[in-house]
Specification:
Elements (H helix, E strand, L loop, with lengths): L1 E8 L5 H14 L5 E8 L5 E3 L13 E5 L5 E4 L5 E4 L2 E4 L4 H4 L2 H8 L9 H8 L1 H10 L7 E3 L13 E5 L9 E3 L2 H11 L6 E5 L5 E10 L2 E10 L8 H5 L13 E2 L6 H17 L5 E8 L4 E7 L14 H11 L20
Parallel strand pairs: 1-2, 1-7
Antiparallel strand pairs: 2-3, 3-4, 4-5, 5-6, 8-11, 9-10, 9-11, 12-13, 12-15, 13-14, 15-16
């Protein structure tokens, strides 16, 4: 049996959403095939092994745990002290240090395969400004935007515009603005979450369409498309997680799967999804969010560890999807030794 760790929580505004994804994955993993080790990173950054994974008792009776560089073992403090060989890690961390490449880096130096994008692609997709700069460099359609700084002219904007913290997800800190007063309020609000802010042109009339992408055995696989319903401007955090019930599901009345789009729009979305997966050198499951008006398809952003791992977009069970993810686990970096005689004549 494989030893599989699930890492969830983290120092992130999306901490609670990550706990839900971690719990869903824990419940769905086949315990006849895997020994499962839940690792909870609390909001202060402490790593804790959760022996009895129940959300209501999450902060009780957990043991401190950690990985050691150049080792694939999970060290669990306690009596007795345990070292467990970990075959792979399922990352269920959203936003913050969990999705920006930092935890991926810890796993890299620990020689532990993991399920999501690598350090580089995780880092650049968490920074909306850099991600959009790459869109532009590759002629990927995205709404007009600029990174706010002291030289930015905000007196002559073409409203409505959207204000976004650069490094957050789940619509946290995002507001749509129709005039300068709303803009100034939105900037002040966004700066509560991030020092870097982008302002982009709002798309109207707006349709949001999402698609998940997975690469398995050298083949890129696309999920069904999803269209959130009933929103005129954009989905807030509350729309995504609080008004639609306890969890996402394929039968949720707030979304249409597949999306209500034309064949031409679907073809554009699927082509862009494959191109983006390759451009950003992605790994595992990602979700790409698109914005559509009456005539155009725009790329909004890439999510390298999507909520619920976007299981509801696939025509297979969550258990089977996790099997595929575990099969895809790998270590991104190559450990290459290059020997020279450069130190032979060095005298301390």
């Amino acid at each position: 049996m494989k030893n599989v760790a699930i890492i969830f929580g983290g120092v992130s505004a999306e901490h609670e959403v990550s706990i839900i994804t971690g719990k869903q994955a824990y419940n769905s993993l086949d315990k006849k095939k895997y020994n499962v080790y839940p690792i909870y990173i609390d909001i202060n950054g402490n790593w804790l092994y959760v022996k009895n994974f129940k959300i209501k008792n999450l902060k009780q009776n957990n043991k401190v745990c950690y990985f050691v560089p150049n080792s694939n073992k999970l060290h669990i403090k306690g009596s007795p002290f345990k070292k467990i060989t970990i075959d792979c890690v399922l990352l269920a961390t959203h936003g913050g240090n969990g999705e920006n490449g930092m935890i991926q880096g810890v796993l890299e130096v620990s020689n532990i395969p993991y399920s999501s994008c690598g350090v580089l692609s995780s880092a650049i997709t968490m920074d909306k400004a850099i991600m959009k700069d790459i869109f532009v460099a590759h002629n990927i359609p995205t709404p007009q935007y600029f990174l706010l700084n002291e030289n930015s002219d905000i007196n002559n904007l073409d409203y409505p515009v959207v204000v976004k913290p650069v490094s957050l997800g789940s619509s946290i800190g995002i507001k749509i603005c129709h005039n300068k007063k709303e803009l100034l309020d939105a900037i002040k609000f966004a700066k509560l979450f991030d020092d870097k802010i982008i302002i982009e042109k709002a798309i109207f009339p707006l349709r949001e369409v999402n698609i998940a992408v997975l690469k398995h055995k050298s083949q890129i696989i696309l999920s069904n498309t999803e269209q959130p319903l009933g929103q005129d401007e954009f989905l807030t955090f509350e729309d995504k997680y609080l008004r639609n019930g306890k969890s996402k599901s394929k039968n949720n009345s707030k979304r249409k799967i597949p999306a209500l789009i034309t064949n031409e729009e679907e073809s554009k979305i699927k082509k862009l999804a494959i191109d983006l997966y390759n451009i950003f050198r992605c790994k595992g499951i990602i979700r790409i969010d698109f914005l559509l008006d009456d005539n155009n398809v725009y790329v909004n952003e890439l999510n390298t560890i999507p909520g619920s791992l976007s299981y509801y977009l696939w025509d297979i069970s969550y258990k089977k999807l996790l099997d595929i993810l575990i099969d895809c686990c790998s270590v991104e970096c190559k450990h290459i030794q290059y020997k020279t005689n450069i130190l032979e004549n060095y005298n301390d």
